[in-house]
Amino acid sequence: MTLGKRQKRGSAATARGQGMARSLSYITAPQLISIARNPRVAIVDVRDEERSYDAHIAGSLHYASDTFSERMPDLLHAVKGKDTLVFHCALSQVAPFPLLSIAVRGPSCARKFLEYLSETKDAGINNVMVLDRGFNGWHASGNPVCQCTTNPCTGNCA
């Protein structure tokens, strides 16, 4: 498929035309803050055990990377009615070397989910994004975090 100069692969316009997301994009913390309260947006935390002692973004769903592949059908069910998913891990970086898998949990899980979506019927998900700088960047920037132990987080954190 050839896209015009103004459309980039995976853009909302392209996704609506195809009925599903086609590629990943990154979203900054300020951009996420501006859309996080939208009921059609879901934040997916793929960190493993560190979520329990490091806190998390209020309202996020937890699907640990070590069991993510097996739980993708559960995630799809949990995000029914959402059109934008924002994945993150601790850093949400693309590793320069394939062996640095710990640093790429967010982007890797987001890509796996995109592949899964391409094999399912239209799920209504138009945008799959990765939080730039991950949870660590979010927290270091002074953005609000939650320390509740519920999953999904209700978002009513102090």
UniProtKB/TrEMBL annotation:
Reactions listed under catalytic activity: [glutaredoxin]-dithiol + arsenate + glutathione + H(+) = glutathionyl-S-S-[glutaredoxin] + arsenite + H2O
Gene Ontology MF, one: protein tyrosine phosphatase activity
InterPro entries, sorted: Rhodanese-like_dom, Rhodanese-like_dom_sf
Signal peptide boundaries: none
Keywords: Oxidoreductase
One GO cellular component, as annotated: cytoplasm
Domain of life, source organism: Eukaryota
Residue ranges of domain Rhodanese in the record: 37-147
EC code(s) of this entry: 1.20.4.1
Coiled-coil residue windows: none
Pfam families: Rhodanese
Role, per record: Possesses phosphatase activity towards p-nitrophenyl phosphate in vitro.
PANTHER family cross-referenced by the UniProt entry: ARSENICAL-RESISTANCE PROTEIN 2-RELATED (PTHR10828:SF38), M-PHASE INDUCER PHOSPHATASE DUAL SPECIFICITY PHOSPHATASE CDC25 (PTHR10828)
Name of the molecule in the record: arsenate reductase (glutathione/glutaredoxin)
Organism the protein comes from: Zingiber officinale
